[in-house]
Task: structure prediction
Amino acid sequence: MSKGKGIYRSRDRKIAGVCGGIAQYFDFDVTLVRLIYALATLTTAFSGVLVYLIAWLVVPSEEFTPDKPE
Result:
């Protein structure tokens, strides 16, 4: 079975790497994703915090590969 492109929590993390993983998956700037997430959380009565916590638990962490640049 070939391993396709998937969402993984990034090693470039501020908290848990969820926004970094989403940015890598969609090929966006991670700062832009974090800003959009923060704005969405503030405008939805902080329901984004619950979504982030669930994603932290569900989305697997990016595996370390020694030959991959940091």
